[in-house]
Amino acid sequence: MTLAELAAFVGGTIEGGSPDAPVTGVSSLHDALPGDVSFLANPRYARQLASTKATAVFVASGADVRPPEAGGALVRVDSPDGAFAKTVPLFTVPPPVRKPGIHPSAVVDPSAKIGKDVHVGPLSVIGPGAVIGDRCVIEAHVVVADGAVVGDDCHLYPMVSIRERCRIGSRVTIHNGTVIGADGFGYETKVGPTGIEVKKIPQLGIVEIGDDVEIGANATIDRARFGATVIGAHTKIDNLVQIGHNVRTGPYCGIVSQVGIAGSTHLGTGVMIWGQAGLAGHLTIADGVEILAHAGVAGDLLAPGQYLGAPALPKRDALRVFHAPRAVERLKEQVAALEAKVKALEQR
Amino acid sequence: MTLAELAAFVGGTIEGGSPDAPVTGVSSLHDALPGDVSFLANPRYARQLASTKATAVFVASGADVRPPEAGGALVRVDSPDGAFAKTVPLFTVPPPVRKPGIHPSAVVDPSAKIGKDVHVGPLSVIGPGAVIGDRCVIEAHVVVADGAVVGDDCHLYPMVSIRERCRIGSRVTIHNGTVIGADGFGYETKVGPTGIEVKKIPQLGIVEIGDDVEIGANATIDRARFGATVIGAHTKIDNLVQIGHNVRTGPYCGIVSQVGIAGSTHLGTGVMIWGQAGLAGHLTIADGVEILAHAGVAGDLLAPGQYLGAPALPKRDALRVFHAPRAVERLKEQVAALEAKVKALEQR
Amino acid sequence: MTLAELAAFVGGTIEGGSPDAPVTGVSSLHDALPGDVSFLANPRYARQLASTKATAVFVASGADVRPPEAGGALVRVDSPDGAFAKTVPLFTVPPPVRKPGIHPSAVVDPSAKIGKDVHVGPLSVIGPGAVIGDRCVIEAHVVVADGAVVGDDCHLYPMVSIRERCRIGSRVTIHNGTVIGADGFGYETKVGPTGIEVKKIPQLGIVEIGDDVEIGANATIDRARFGATVIGAHTKIDNLVQIGHNVRTGPYCGIVSQVGIAGSTHLGTGVMIWGQAGLAGHLTIADGVEILAHAGVAGDLLAPGQYLGAPALPKRDALRVFHAPRAVERLKEQVAALEAKVKALEQR
Q: Are the C-beta atoms of C34 and C55 separated by less than 8 Å?
């Protein structure tokens, strides 16, 4: 497809670029490479428009913008995101569709209950007493252990483990390699008559995952010591996240890659935690708290707002910490000047 | 079961609450929800008693405590933890028992040696020359590679990989998705006549895991370049931990989730490392060192005690670092006051 | 083998130690245990020679060094690393060789294309339309999903997932449990008439991995929103690393364990990132940048050199930050002394 054909397809007018330029893909302005079509809907990203390598960018008819510096074209349309949405299917492939049916190589225990129109892929294992809801897609190489319950319309990718008796809501997606319900980390250490004794504390609870949750790849959510580790509905969890035993998250939380939340910490509604942040155990995190990347949270956060640093502080205080070294440099100069002046005064 | 029935079951007397209140589970004071039974054995947690949502809390007959503020009852007994231990089985389910036997879908190499009363679950692979000790439970979807040796009474959960020739002690538990013995990260980089050349350093050693070790989910312990990466007996490792090649831990260490230990670092006995801490390579960490969460350890730690921060310092010094910004604020005020005074003196 | 036999084997002369001492393995100077043979090629490591526990150390004939303090011997040879390379095979076992052939328990879709001399291990799944290049080793328990393409001479270890349509170059090694091509973390959150609405942003792109890449265990590399997440040729990635959607790395990068790189960040050539560092999204990291362990990178790094701390700064500036608390202590003393002097002046 050429730029000219693309403009005709969306009913737009070209500004700049070359009408014969080949168009081969779609992208965001930042990520675009030559051949890509992108769009500018929000004027906030106008700077990205200037530097994009896209071959064509949909912009609003009346937008006060110029073509990208790298030589791409503007395609003026009534609705830039509408035109983009219409273009995306030309250059992308939807995910594979899994047809209902149980692959003959899957090992499904006779006591498991499988809902209607379920797909169970090759070599998956559905254990004794497990329940799989209607229209679920259980891909290849998934293990749903004894007595675990999966709701309707879930999608479990390869290498996912759902451990014994854990409960997954409906419309839940779990990506490859994630482990739901391994034992929490709990031991009692004593010095006994024969030396150190480390005794495992049995982890007898489960994990309960609400509806409409999505969990990334290779994450781990530990079963509770007693009761349940709870992930609230509509919460989204990224890759390699660790959720300790008896953690409870509210609904609508977002937990980004490599975050760790230690045992028995409770998150409110809509808590957002960015990459690599860590939360100590037994904390209370209020509704609407946002914990920024790489933070280390050692105490309760009871007011909404942004927190930063290790130990994490309200953003304003954390920035003061970050700027302290510069203040020290200024203080050194001020103190040296004072010392000279005082010496001079003393010698008078 | 009602509160009254529970009190009768343990031979206790009720104080506060409602005798007809339903009792449905067990929990810690902090995690308890209405319906739960909990206990207070250590007076240190008396504050948690006040705020718990538990319906019933076992406390010692003579304890000077009042019922929870949320309306739950005290149940006074001779031994609160004894009463709790007696109650737990009423409300919890023990882990599934795996019977001895090899599932027909497992792929066990004819040259592998399988001990007595071993369970091998569906679709697991036991490679050529591998050895599995007596009474082991190898769950579904485990791969024990060529020549690996697993001791007696081990429990390997689904998706565990034991790579070639690694040696696991007895009574070792490894949770889902953990990888024992992948190659360490080692390359030689040179600028040769044709440009950069990156050459892999072969990783020819193994991993040796001592007796009574437990390892969480999705952790990685790399094989040594030569010799062995060693995990000492009774050491406990949490989820998503990374242990580099040629690391050696002493016995009785504890390594919490998302910790990373770089290559050839050696830990003494009873070293405790809390979540997300990182240790550089080639370090020596003495017996009894405790590294707090999120710390970054860049040098040897040769004295026992607590270490904190990045770069990690003895706790007292680290706290001084954390408080430095506040000291800077005070210094600014002091210096401004001094400047004014000196100016006044100069003008006299 | 005895020390004397070892010396004869490499044609060296013994200095110190006992000729009958048993020799049982090979190691680096730092990691060596009694019984090990090691070598000193670079005089920089002479201090390690003094403290090594090795039984024998190859050193250059004329090197000005003395035997290890622990009682090991020097074995003087013309080429210490040559002698070591000759000795290594005596004490190490090469990795298992996988013969060409498809295990009968593997599930290979009839529409998949399998190259010449490919090994497919037990219970692996090769999906519809997938392509496996010549001489690849696909170990047990690997899933290559629909339409994924793997080049020639690749080695995929157990529990690896290659998601739909991702493209792997030639001579690529991926260790156990790594996930290539799970969905990136992308959602749109709106407050609609019925409350919060969280809408998934479809992740329609792929992952493209260049030639000669190696990736460790349990790492995750997310598929792009559109287009491709790209790992440059010869780049080496360690265990538990997270690479977000639309990240692009140049060739010859090194990314050490537990690093996280957020979406759409672009790395130049030869970028080195040490353990547990985190990079925010949408950043540009220049050729030759080295990011030290545990750093948190929040902005573009446009000049080569070393960066440290969180937020990461050029190493010199970061060290000033680390030393600021000590400067504060000195300032406190200076200010106290000044206050006393000014008071004295005022009282004159």
A: yes
Count other C-beta atoms under 10 Å from residue A192's C-beta: 9
Flag residues of chain C having pLDDT under 50: none
Residue B37 lies in a domain: yes
Tell how strand A195-200 and strand A187-192 pair up: antiparallel
Q: Is residue A51 domain-shared with residue A199, that is, in the same domain?
A: no
Verify that C67 and C35 share a domain, yes or no. Answer: yes
Residue B245 appears among annotated catalytic residues = yes
| Cβ neighbours for B163, distance < 8 A, ≥ 6 positions apart | B145, B148, B179, B180, B181, B182, B207, B223, C157, C176
Compute the nearest-CA separation of B330 from chain A (Å).
11
- Calculate the CA dihedral of residues A153, A156, A162, A165 and round it to 10 degrees: 10
Size of chain A in residues: 348
Whether the upstream peptide bond of residue C311 has omega within 30° of 0, thus cis, is yes
Between B182, B225, B264, which is nearest C217 by CB? Answer: B182
Q: Which of C161, C198, C205 sits opposite A252 (nearest CB)?
A: C198
Contacts of B83 (CB under 8 A, 6+ apart): B10, B12, B39, B58, B75, B77
Residue of B322 and A292 predicted with greater confidence: A292
> Is A240 in CB contact (< 8 Å) with chain C?
yes
Question: How far, in Å, CA of A325 to CA of A321, rounded?
Answer: 8
Structural domain boundaries, residue B47: 3-91
Considering only CB atoms, C36 lies closest to which of B123, B227, B320, namely B227
Convert the pLDDT of each residue in C12-39 to its tens digit. 999 999 999 999 999 999 999 999 999 9
Residues B70, B107 share a domain? no
Q: Cα C260–C265–C269 angle (5° rounding)? A: 95
Q: Is B336 in the C-facing interface, judged by CB distances under 8 Å? A: no
Residue B60 and residue B115 share a domain: no
Among A60, A91, A122, the domain boundary falls at: A91
What's C297's DSSP letter? Answer: E
Rounded Cα distance, A302 and A292, in Å = 16
Averaged confidence pLDDT in chain B:
96
Q: Give the pLDDT confidence of B227-240 residue by residue, as tens digits.
A: 999 999 999 999 99
In a 10 Å sphere around its CB, with 0-12 CB exposed, 13-18 middle and 19+ buried, how is residue B191 labelled? exposed
- The pLDDT, as a whole number, for residue B108 is 98
Chains within contact range of chain A (3+ C-beta pairs < 8 Å): B, C
| Matching residue, tokens 């990132």 | C273
Residue A331, pLDDT > 90, answer yes
In this structure, are C131 and C250 located in the same domain? yes
How many independent structural domains does chain C possess?
Answer: 2
Q: Determine the 3-state secondary structure of A301 from DSSP.
A: strand
- The pTM assigned to this predicted structure is 0.96
Calculate the CA dihedral of residues A169, A173, A179, A182 and round it to 10 degrees.
-10
Distance in angstroms (rounded) separating the CA atoms of residues C165 and B71: 58
- Cα C86 to Cα A133, C7, C24, C81, C219: the distances in Å are 61, 12, 15, 8, 35
* Amino acid identity for residue A132 in this structure: I
Same structural domain, A329 and A269: no
In degrees rounded to 5, what are phi and psi of residue C117? 55, 35
pLDDT in tens, B92-119: 999 999 999 999 999 999 999 999 999 9
CA distance C161 to C180: 6
Q: What angle do CA C145, C147, C149 make, to 5 degrees?
A: 90
Within a domain: residue C320?
no
Complex ipTM, two decimals? 0.95
Question: Pick from A322, A326, A266, A320: which is nearest to A297 by CA?
Answer: A266
Does one domain contain both C81 and C146?
no
**Strand residues in A217-288 grouped as ranges (E):** 220-221, 228-231, 236-237, 242-243, 254-255, 260-261, 266-267, 272-273, 278-279, 284-285
How close does chain B come to A307, measured CA to CA in Å? 16
